[in-house]
Specification:
Length: about 160
């Protein structure tokens, strides 16, 4: 019975990799453009690259001799659901648009990302703090400076614009 499950995971991983390759090569048909002047294929090509990366990693784990779902410090019980985290993340997602008005982009994104990360792994609060900070600042820089999207701005956003030129 266990061998059948491993075989099914291998087949699934190969099919997912095949789909990722199909998606990526079809996305390459679209004109990607550049970051300053994005074309219709820029986001699909980026998604295709990420799909290939994720499915490649998954296929590598499945092809290892050891069952990736067994043992180890990072394994979790698939039958146990963390309902407080599920409802907390749902609440953060619903509250985010309302927080944008008062906290502007960076502060709101940081607060929501930090809350979600702490809900997922409460033992890693300091790591979650720095990860949420980098997510907020990185998203602001990518969307506002690189892609030219207008985001709600406040003191922190103006400061980053002055630093960035």
């Amino acid at each position: 019975m266990e061998g059948n499950t491993i075989r099914n995971r291998k087949i699934t991983a190969i099919l997912l990799l095949g789909f990722s390759l199909f998606y990526f090569f079809n996305a390459l048909r679209l004109k990607p453009g550049t970051f300053s002047n994005p074309g219709p294929g820029l986001i699909p090509v980026g998604i295709g690259v990420l799909l290939l990366l994720c499915t490649g990693i998954y296929l590598g784990r499945v092809l290892q001799k050891k069952d990736p779902r067994e043992g180890g410090p990072g394994s979790s019980d698939p039958g146990r659901k963390n309902y407080p985290a599920i409802f907390g993340i749902l609440g953060c997602t619903l509250a985010y648009p309302f927080l944008l008005e008062t906290g502007k982009f960076i502060l709101s994104t940081f607060a929501v990302a930090y809350a979600m990360l702490v809900l997922l792994k409460p033992s890693r609060a300091l790591f979650s703090f720095f990860l949420a900070l980098s997510i907020a600042v990185g998203a602001f820089l990518i969307f506002s400076l690189l892609l030219g999207v207008a985001l709600p701005g406040g003191f922190l956003e103006d400061l980053l614009f002055r630093i960035g030129g």
